[in-house]
Specification:
PH-domain like; 19% strand; six-stranded antiparallel sheet
Length: 270
């Protein structure tokens, strides 16, 4: 099971316990779970409301506050909790606009302070504005099931290689509020290239590291070695296509990594 699927399964398991349904009824709102597989394709641009630099391929699940009883499709998928591979987006206490991104690896401990209050102790200062190593989350969700979700995801995160997500930092992020602007910006966000995903990059890197650790391995497994070089070549081509259509910095980072690995592998044959 991929990390995407593991995170999605955890969120789905607890999502029925998260919602305050009385609040939902009074405010004419309802909560909906989406995995990365079931998320509406025509709403993907709404993810940019959380963070304009969000890397869509890293989305695992969303617990969405979908408003609009008269027109249920009107406001879908632009508010709630968004779970990514390396962290999650949420509004913290007192945060009326925008979202905060919190890396799973940045969380030292989680404490339930009240029915809807969660206290996170962090192993870093959140950013230069706050200069604090803790966060309070007080929102429209019940704290205990949210803690359970985070505890289980953090356990998975510690068992998974997340070195490729180190550029995503904990702190307040800036999203795009206007729908027209989100849709225009999203036109460059490419998700159809399998080789442009971070998980695919990790798979290639592990294969490459096995060859690089043993300078004679490529001779014994020459067909696998050549196939890996071909994959890196195709990966670079796909990443170039993505970079032509997207301003997301992650594509450039993956391109740099792919080129370095390809060059190191090629040198082994000389």
């Amino acid at each position: 099971m991929s990390k995407h699927d593991e995170i999605a399964a955890i969120v789905e398991k607890y999502c029925g316990e998260l919602a305050d349904y009385e609040l939902a009824y009074n405010n004419k709102r309802y909560w909906v779970f989406y995995s990365y597989k079931t998320f509406p394709a025509n709403k993907k641009s709404n993810l940019l409301k959380f963070d304009k630099n969000l890397f869509e391929a890293d989305m695992a699940a969303m617990y969405s506050i979908d408003s609009g009883v008269i027109n249920p499709d009107a406001e879908k998928c632009k508010d709630g909790i968004l779970f990514m591979l390396s962290g999650f987006y949420i509004r913290t206490s007192g945060q009326l606009k925008g979202y905060t991104f919190i890396k799973y690896s940045a969380i030292k401990s989680i404490e339930v302070k009240g029915k809807k209050d969660l206290h996170l102790s962090l192993n870093i200062n959140t950013n230069d504005l706050w200069k604090q190593d803790w966060l309070n989350i007080s929102v429209d969700y019940y704290a205990e099931p949210l803690k359970n979700i985070l505890d289980e995801i953090i356990k998975i995160d510690r068992e998974t290689d997340t070195s490729y997500t180190t550029e995503s930092k904990t702190g307040i992020v800036k999203g795009i509020n206007q729908k027209a602007n989100r849709e225009a910006y999203f036109k460059g966000q490419i998700s159809g290239y399998k080789r442009a995903s971070r998980e695919y990059q990790i798979k290639l890197q592990k294969q490459a590291d096995a060859f690089l650790a043993n300078c004679n391995l490529w001779r014994k497994k020459q067909s696998e070695y050549e196939a890996l070089l071909d994959e890196y070549e195709q990966t670079i081509i796909e990443l170039q296509s993505c970079m032509e259509q997207s301003s997301s910095p992650e594509y450039q980072e993956m391109m740099n990594s792919a080129q370095v690995y390809k060059e190191r592998l090629e040198k082994m044959a000389y």
